[in-house]
Design brief:
Layout lengths: L2 H18 L15 H4 L3 H7 L2 E14 L2 E8 L2 E8 L5 H10 L5 E10 L5 E12 L15 H6 L1 H7 L1 H23 L3 E2 L5 E2 L11 E4 L4 E5 L5 H9 L4 E9 L11 E10 L3 H20 L3 E4 L2 E4 L5 E4 H9 L8 H10 L9 H13 L6 E4 L11 E2 L2 E5 L1 E6 L2 E2 L2 E4 L4 H16 L10 H9 L4 E7 L1 H7 L16
Parallel strand pairs: 3-5, 6-10, 14-15
Antiparallel strand pairs: 1-2, 1-4, 2-3, 4-5, 7-9, 8-9, 10-11, 11-21, 12-13, 15-18, 16-17, 18-19, 18-20, 20-21
Helix pairs in contact: 6-7, 7-9, 8-14, 11-12, 13-14
Length: about 475
């Protein structure tokens, strides 16, 4: 029998002791009168008045022996000390507590608050009740969970024993709440669009496929937050919309990539990418100051400050500056040779993937904050061309710490041009590029009815991960794990 099995067997015996004493180890109700966070501000008044209160939570530590025990109880709002004195509580109840309570159990304690000789705010226990008997122990206080896989697989224990990790997810909620409030204050309407689609659109990524039993058709989990749907809303007369929701991409995992994550996208009628860049700069600065109370950050070797002027960097010119390659005019052979020279691995041989891989090599050298502009048309199938230069588009990507943290453009609303670009993407799909965009004939039909000029933009929780200086997997409550 393993050590863990022995602990469980011992706790099962304690469970039987509780049952034999006529105690339900898993009751449905508690008499709690105060959370820890509500107790602390009113502690002095409660102590002065001798008030009788009840708190409830998980037993984290039991210290002491003999006639007095000190128990740390933690609820979802904080931790508080309960003091058990043999002469202050029913004798049988005191003995039962010593016999059956373990770290990890949930209990409620009732009594009056007082301050110990060492100045510790506490509750002097007059009665206690079991709320949930734990059968397995909590991680060791000093060593915790020992490896990343165990931490993610038992995330509830990781969160329980690391308050700083719980605070990260409090900030994450504030991050998205700040985004939502900002967009509404700017006059955008929050909408919901389908997560199951007949054709994926709005990004270049390999989708997840599932089957719709009722219709007997295969459908895709969306790879963007309703880009082609929100553009339909532009045609319907909604001039400013946004959505915050989950997206799914069946591709690799890295410090900046996951298969499931939260994104926000907005679509703004009668605006172009210049207006979009101004709004995004304002949004990111608002996130920094509201969530973190600052504008300057460090991520590894990178430093960046959202309050400083955002530079604009030409995609084509930056690649040429760093590598000597003009990606618009160079041959595929030239690009492959440069990637080989730089010892950069690349998948596939089509022009779009080669260009994108070379850019990814270059972007890592940029601290930001900056906007990447003037992307080649080939890598921007939904963006309008730059006036007087048909080879590049009105696309912009905010970049910090060597990583893009968003993507936007002046939306292409010419149905004939959009069809031609979708057809080019179809050729890439046929050639084996699983990330190329699918043809959406109904979307083109919408464009033929007419869609106003507009700016669209989207970003995801990669930005949050960078601001936290964490791999994106660490900022997921429950990242997907391979089954044991």
């Amino acid at each position: 029998m393993s050590g863990l099995d022995e602990v469980r067997a011992e706790r099962l015996k304690k469970l039987e002791i509780l049952k034999a004493a006529g105690i339900n180890p898993y009751p449905s109700r508690t008499k709690r009168t105060h959370t820890v966070s509500a107790l602390l501000p009113s502690f002095q008044a409660l102590e002065r008045e001798g008030s009788f209160i009840t708190i409830a939570g998980r037993v984290m530590i039991v210290r002491g022996q003999g006639a007095i025990l000190f128990v740390d109880i933690q609820d979802g709002t904080g931790k508080f000390q309960a003091v058990f004195k043999e002469d202050e509580i029913d004798a049988d109840s005191f003995v039962l507590f010593k016999d059956v309570i373990d770290g990890g159990d949930f209990i409620e304690v009732s009594g009056s608050v007082f301050t110990t000789e060492r100045g510790q705010q506490s509750i002097l226990v007059k009665a206690w009740a079991m709320l949930s008997k734990s059968l397995l122990p909590l991680p060791d206080k000093f060593h915790g969970l020992q490896n990343e896989e165990e931490r993610f697989r038992k995330r509830y224990l990781d969160l329980l024993t690391h308050p700083e990790l719980r605070e990260l997810f409090v900030r994450k909620e504030k991050f998205w709440a700040t985004v939502r409030l900002f967009m509404k204050d700017e006059g955008f309407l929050e909408v919901e669009t389908p997560t199951l689609e007949l054709t994926t659109g709005g990004a270049e990524a390999r989708p997840f496929v599932t089957h719709h039993n009722d219709f007997d058709i295969d459908v895709f989990l969306r790879i963007s937050v309703g880009e082609l749907w929100q553009k339909r809303l532009l045609a319907a007369g909604f001039e400013k919309t946004f959505e915050i929701g989950r997206t799914y991409r069946n591709e690799g995992t890295s410090p900046n990539h996951l298969q499931e994550f939260t994104n926000m996208e907005f679509y703004w009628g009668y605006a172009d990418y210049e207006a979009g860049m101004a709004l995004v700069e304002k949004l990111y600065r608002s996130i920094a100051t509201t969530v973190y109370g600052k504008t300057d950050f460090t991520r590894g070797e990178y430093t960046f400050d959202f309050s400083k002027e955002w530079t604009r960097i030409s995609y084509q010119e930056e690649i040429k500056k760093q590598t000597g390659i003009d990606v618009v005019n160079a041959t595929d052979l030239d690009i492959r040779a440069k990637l080989d020279e730089l010892k950069v691995k690349y998948d596939g041989t089509n022009r779009e993937r080669l260009t994108d891989t070379l850019w990814k090599y270059c972007r890592k050298n940029i601290h930001g904050p900056a906007f990447i502009i003037n992307h080649p048309k080939l890598v921007s199938p939904l963006a309008k061309e730059v006036r007087d230069n048909e080879n590049v588009t009105q696309r912009f990507q905010p970049l910090i710490a060597g990583t893009e943290v968003g993507n936007g453009y002046s939306e292409l609303n010419n149905p004939l041009e959009q069809r031609a670009r979708f057809e080019l993407q179809q050729e890439l799909l046929k050639g084996g590029d699983a990330e190329a965009m699918m043809m959406d004939a109904e979307f083109i039909e919408m464009l033929e009815h007419g869609m106003p000029p507009a700016c669209g933009f989207g970003f995801g929780e990669r930005l949050f991960a960078i601001l936290e200086d964490k791999p994106i997997r660490e900022t997921q409550l429950f990242p997907l794990m391979r089954p044991k």
